[in-house]
Amino acid sequence: MPSVLDVVNVQDMDIDRFDPTPIYKQVARVIRERIKSGELRPRDPIPSESKMVADYGVARDTARQAVALLRSEGWVITLPQRGSFVAERPPAESAD
């Protein structure tokens, strides 16, 4: 069975509930790959929590955890009352 790392077009993949990687880390990985590929550029909004819930079939808290992880890694910034956006200078590489 292919893993997330084997999928070229990562945003089209579903979250693998049998993968031992926590779901929030899998969601964060998908968004991180969209940033790395240039699909999401600096200052672009990342998907909202509601969109992540709908797209990936995860709980809202899981979506929040994914955003918090991306924020702690420096990939995104969150502006109160506005949402989360790709950072001006995302890290060159980050531990997946």
List the domain count as a whole number. 1
Low-confidence stretches: 4-12
- Return the string of H and E elements: HHHEE
β-strand percent reads 5-15%
Number of helices: 3
Structural class: mainly alpha
> Which fold name fills CATH's third level, the topology?
Arc Repressor Mutant, subunit A
What average pLDDT do the residues reach?
87
Number-wise, the strands total 2
Q: How are the strands of the largest sheet arranged? A: 1-2
CATH architecture: Orthogonal Bundle
Radius of gyration: 13 Å
**CATH top level?**
Mainly Alpha
Can you tell me the overall shape? globular
Provide an overview of this structure.
There is one protein chain. The chain has a two-stranded antiparallel ribbon. It has a single domain (4-86), classed as Winged helix-like DNA-binding domain superfamily/Winged helix DNA-binding domain (Arc Repressor Mutant, subunit A, Orthogonal Bundle). The longest helix is centred in the N-terminal third of the chain and has 14 residues, at 23-36. Mean pLDDT is 87; it is low at 4-12. It has helices at residues 23-36, 49-56, 60-73; strands spanning 76-79, 83-86. Helix 1 crosses helix 3 (60-73) and helix 2 crosses helix 3 (60-73). It is 38% helix and 8% strand. The chain contains three helices and two strands. It has 96 residues and is mainly α.
